[in-house]
Amino acid sequence: MLTRTTSAVLPRGRNSLTLRVRGRSIGTQSKFKIGSLKPRFPLEIIETIVGFVLLLHPFPKSGFLAIRSFTQGSKMLREISLRLYFRDVLLDDRALFVKVWDYLSTENAVFGGSNSFGWVRSLIGPSHIVASSAIKNIGSFVNLKTLELSFASEGSSTQDSVIHRLLDSFLHSPSRNILEKLALTEVPHVDAKLLESLSGMFPRLESLELGSTKRIESDCCIVCMEDSLVDIRHSPIPDYYANAEKLATSFARSLAPMSRLKHLYLGLLLSDAYALEDHLTHSDEAKGGRGVVTSFSSCLTCDRLREETQRREWLVSLSLSRALPSLDTIRWDTLFTSLARGRTESDEDGFYYASDDGFLQVPSAVTFLIHRHTGSGEVRTMIPVHS
Ligand SMILES: [Zn+2]
Ligand SMILES: [Zn+2]
């Protein structure tokens, strides 16, 4: 996909944008004093044009064709276009990552002093791009602002080693203090140990997203959903934390080093671990064992858990917002959304079918908007917003 044209690079100081007078190129070798006669097309406009082209042909779908002509114009144009092209790197497999790596390595040699790996500002892809020893150090992206990795292909037995490799790769990288947003999705286990590792490595993060609940299979039947629950820690209370107070204390202590954190999303359920499985059992029985997944929000049996779950969501959010004075929002996944979506798709008994309604509607979330007192920064109020 990515091929470099060697003829594209012109010698230093001889680019195609040098002013031409009466058909003659006036370069640095001219005997005339022409300092003020060497206008160049404003870089900002060039960047805007290239950026506009890349909007229509983003990486990697454009397959490099969109910017090929830019890279052949001059060295300057080549650097601008490649810097913009590789700014947001979206990967779907390891092979593409290797191609990108090789390409940037080649450009690194071409541009010498300017580190082409610094062009990458956001990197989005699957976790196994860092899982293989064949993959180079991901911390080499020295200007990385956003990193999003899906752990969908990991299990509880591989998660720790991938996290360890990821953190190791940033150990000596300047980007550990530059990274603003880190999102690890579909992680089998989110716990205080993981939070502590991440806050130790990335203390200047402004946005952290970690979640397990997207691994729950909610688009098919009860059997598929039950199978998907086996290898994930979707609800850490009470098996891993006896109660919400203990979870709040532990999470707050682990995240405390992130003194700039503004937005926190933890894709966990704070209802008891058994709640979800119990619901699958009694909702199926109520439907005569038809194997359909019914809406949690409309279940009268489960509704007794609503108040306690919402108390936990409030309590843990308050503890975290006090421990992290920079926090503006905290988001959780929840079984108890206040929204009654999909009602028009229920059957005559008021049950929602998974194929229509998606049951949990993952991610059903509650976001607490934190308002603080000016000056003291103490929490004044938190407003829960369901989505
Ligand atoms: Zn199924
Ligand atoms: Zn229920």
Kindly list the characteristics that best describe this protein.
nine-stranded mixed beta sheet, two-stranded antiparallel sheet, 387 residues, 14% strand, binds zinc ion, alpha/beta
Q: Please, could you describe this protein's structure?
A:
With 387 residues, the chain is an alpha/beta fold. 33% of the residues lie in helices and 14% in strands. The chain has helices at residues 43-56, 65-71, 75-85, 94-111, 159-170, 192-201, 222-229, 244-255, 273-286, 306-323, 354-357, and strands at 20-21, 24-25, 88-90, 122-126, 146-150, 181-185, 207-211, 263-267, 329-333, 365-372, 379-386. Strands 3-4-5-6-7-8-9-10-11 form a nine-stranded mixed sheet, covered by helices on one side. Helix 1 packs across helix 3 (75-85), helix 6 packs parallel to helix 8 and helix 8 (244-255) packs parallel to helix 10 (306-323). The longest helix is centred in the N-terminal third of the chain and has 18 residues, at 94-111. It is globular and about 80 Å long. The model is unreliable at 1-32 and 340-359 (pLDDT under 50). Bound molecules: zinc ion (2 copies). Residues 279, 282-283, 299, 301-302 line the site of one zinc ion (ZN).
